[in-house]
């Protein structure tokens, strides 16, 4: 009975070695799934050459995106209801008891939580270092090293 266990173990070991050899040989073979190289044009450059300069986002395109976020039904106009929808959503988040009115406690709940988190020594007051932790965390700019936007009035 013990002989069969040794033979089974040896067979499993040989199977594992065989699988390793097959995988190793496949690693060195070139893959047939690679796409073909793009064809070059007469000038030797790829057909879709990149532009010399990247176009900058203008205030108009940013404003058009902002308009699009408000124009929920995409009819080209922002109605009063569409304009106020974001405010209604923010109000509903604060109105935790759903009574349609904001108490001071509902309104100040974020400020209370922020103060409690910043007051790390629980002294009831914030030191300058503790106060510095309450600064609004801004998302990093997606402009990555771009110069500031130029305005027509000459300001930065």
UniProtKB/TrEMBL annotation:
<feature type="compositionally biased region" description="Basic and acidic residues">
    <location>
        <begin position="62"/>
        <end position="73"/>
    </location>
</feature>
<feature type="domain" description="EF-hand">
    <location>
        <begin position="82"/>
        <end position="117"/>
    </location>
</feature>
<protein>
    <recommendedName>
        <fullName>EF-hand domain-containing protein</fullName>
    </recommendedName>
</protein>
<dbReference type="InterPro" id="IPR018247">
    <property type="entry name" value="EF_Hand_1_Ca_BS"/>
</dbReference>
<keyword id="KW-0812">Transmembrane</keyword>
<dbReference type="InterPro" id="IPR002048">
    <property type="entry name" value="EF_hand_dom"/>
</dbReference>
<feature type="compositionally biased region" description="Low complexity">
    <location>
        <begin position="39"/>
        <end position="49"/>
    </location>
</feature>
<dbReference type="InterPro" id="IPR011992">
    <property type="entry name" value="EF-hand-dom_pair"/>
</dbReference>
<feature type="compositionally biased region" description="Basic and acidic residues">
    <location>
        <begin position="146"/>
        <end position="156"/>
    </location>
</feature>
<dbReference type="GO" id="GO:0005509">
    <property type="term" value="F:calcium ion binding"/>
</dbReference>
<keyword id="KW-0472">Membrane</keyword>
<dbReference type="Pfam" id="PF13202">
    <property type="entry name" value="EF-hand_5"/>
</dbReference>
<feature type="transmembrane region" description="Helical">
    <location>
        <begin position="6"/>
        <end position="24"/>
    </location>
</feature>
<feature type="region of interest" description="Disordered">
    <location>
        <begin position="116"/>
        <end position="156"/>
    </location>
</feature>
<feature type="region of interest" description="Disordered">
    <location>
        <begin position="33"/>
        <end position="73"/>
    </location>
</feature>
<keyword id="KW-1133">Transmembrane helix</keyword>
């Amino acid at each position: 009975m013990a002989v069969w266990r040794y033979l089974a173990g040896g067979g499993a070991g040989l199977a594992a070695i065989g699988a390793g050899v097959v995988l190793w040989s496949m690693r060195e073979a070139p893959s047939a799934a690679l796409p073909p190289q793009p064809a070059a044009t007469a000038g030797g450059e790829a057909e879709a050459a990149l532009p010399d300069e990247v176009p900058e986002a203008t205030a108009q395109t940013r404003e058009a995106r902002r308009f699009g976020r408000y124009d929920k039904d995409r009819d080209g106009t922002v109605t009063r209801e569409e304009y106020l929808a974001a405010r209604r959503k923010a109000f509903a988040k604060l109105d935790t008891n759903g009574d349609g009115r904001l108490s001071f406690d509902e309104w100040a709940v974020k400020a209370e939580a922020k103060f409690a988190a910043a007051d790390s020594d629980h002294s009831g007051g914030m030191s300058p270092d503790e106060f510095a932790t309450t600064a609004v965390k801004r998302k990093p700019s997606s402009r990555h090293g771009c110069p500031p936007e130029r305005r027509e009035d000459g300001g930065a």
